[in-house]
Write a structure and sequence with these properties.
The protein is α+β, with helices and mostly antiparallel strands and 183 residues long. It has helices at residues 7-30, 34-55, 60-68, 93-109, 147-151, and strands at residues 77-82, 118-126, 129-137, 158-165, 169-177. The chain starts with 6 loop residues before the first helix and ends in a 6-residue tail after the last strand.
Length: 183
């Protein structure tokens, strides 16, 4: 899963995504559905603004992981939202990226392949740290089997809080405190 993206592969995926969006707009224009075209354009604008906010947080490895996640072979669709545009004040980009990669891989092993699985991550960058609100909706094959991953200490910098899990939903918060990063 953890693929090293080179520039050509990255651009190929970006080009493919944009071609799909343009074809969707063209198809709806051909079907004389201007309201749907407006919706698609608004979705593209919103997605592009979120990509820009994520890229501007100054955590490049983590941002890259989220930007390419839907191009990797996960059995879930990732959406994210950046709610604060303040640059991230933490220095542990690699720690955060390693953890999110491990979480994606662990989640992928515990969900039903090809089901309607959605992962939503809300990102709050604050002066004193970074908080992620993680919300998975889909089919967990065995919810209890995810518990050991969620209960183990992530690292000295990362803490998981408010964990709720069942066979259809997993919700928790990840907190990375600035003071614990040594800054």
């Amino acid at each position: 899963m953890n693929k090293d993206w080179n520039t050509i592969e990255f651009l190929r995926h970006v080009r493919h995504d944009w071609l799909n969006k343009i074809q969707l707009i063209k198809g709806n224009l051909d079907l004389n559905k201007p309201d749907r075209v407006k919706e698609i354009i608004n979705e593209i604008i919103t997605e592009t603004k979120q990509e820009a906010k994520l890229s501007n947080l100054d955590i490049p490895q983590f941002a890259t992981k989220l930007l390419v996640a839907n191009w990797e072979n996960y059995y879930f669709r990732l959406e994210y939202e950046v709610l604060a545009e303040e640059k991230c004040q933490i220095t542990e980009d690699e720690t955060l990226t390693d953890w999110i990669t491990l979480f994606f891989e662990t989640l992928n092993q515990h969900i039903k392949p090809f089901a309607d699985n959605h992962l939503f991550i809300s990102i709050h960058s604050m002066v004193d740290g970074l908080r992620l609100y993680v919300d998975f909706n889909g089919i967990l094959i065995n919810a209890e089997s995810m518990s050991p991953f969620l209960q183990q200490p992530c690292s000295k910098q990362l803490m998981l809080e408010n964990i709720e899990i069942n066979n259809k939903e997993l919700v928790f918060e990840v907190w990375m405190n600035r003071e614990k990063t040594g800054k």
